[in-house]
Amino acid sequence: MRLRHIEVFHAVFSTGSVSRAARLLNVSQPSVSKVLRHAEDSLGYALFERVKGRVVPTAEAHALYEEVKGIQEQLQSLERRASNLKSGRTGHVRLMVMPALGLDLLPMAVAQFRAENPDVSFDIGTAHFADIVTAIREHKCDLAVAFNPPQLAGLTRHTIGGGRMLCAHSPGAFGDARSVTLADLNGHAMVGIKDSGPLSQLVAAEAQRAGVTLDAAVTVQTYYIARNLVRYGAGVAVVDHLTALAHRGDGVEYTPISPQLRYEVVGLSDEAKPLSTVAAKFLQYFRHLYVERANI
Predict the structure, then answer these.
(1) Which candidate in 36, 47, 65, 278 could, as Cys together with 91 as Cys, close a disulfide (CB 3.0–4.6 Å)?
(2) pLDDT, tens digit, for every residue of 116-148?
(3) Domains parsed from the chain with CATH numbers
(4) 219-278 pLDDT, tens per residue?
(5) DSSP 15-82
């Protein structure tokens, strides 16, 4: 039996009438009768007998019905699944993000998104920029979010928002200054960042332009560790604004760098593999939350 045969047989058996089956399937009565005859011809035996204007299932039809009922339920489940995938209400999203995004904003976005779409699951990883690019190219993630990524062949960019670098320091370290230059950091113990990709390059380029050498007493790989070192008096650090937003009111002050060191927050995906509906829906949701809560 073909799938169309199964659908029509199930409808006629369930409703007990060719006309009611036609209404259920939203097709004409002659169309139902034609498919039913074709199914019977293919099987080599009758499925229904016509008794006084009614269709009565044969013994063979009763024997087939339980199997057909299970197949029909699976088809209906498949239709619901396909519909949910189209609407972005179900699916799986593999994310890779910079560590600073995992401190507050991304967990908030995922939790709120799943509250509205409980059938969507996530696999979330954090990595530095070079590892993020590798993960995309090796198809280990569907969507990544990075800071200030350069234009890279084979990757699609999805603009999310902007940010800026700040100086994290102990209260009063720079008096009541409304901004500090990189040159102002000289004379303070420096907590430096290594191997963090484009943001480190952004700071290094400005230091070179200003003729400033930033010698670090302590070097770390993530901005939240640098910020925690500042909290315990190890010195000052230049951190991204998301790290600052995630740790407000705990004894660390944040002062803008002058001139501003601005960066983009960008989604990245493999241009040869378009985002799934659910991944695109989450990206839009995250972009809206970012603009609402963190865009500078």
Answers:
(1) 278
(2) 999 999 999 999 999 999 999 999 999 999 999
(3) 3-87 (1.10.10.10), 93-296 (3.40.190.290)
(4) 999 999 999 999 999 999 999 999 999 887 778 999 999 999 999 999 999 999 999 999
(5) HS-HHHHHHHHTS-HHHHHHHHHHHHHHHTS-SEEEETTEEEE-HHHHHHHHHHHHHHHHHHHHHHHH
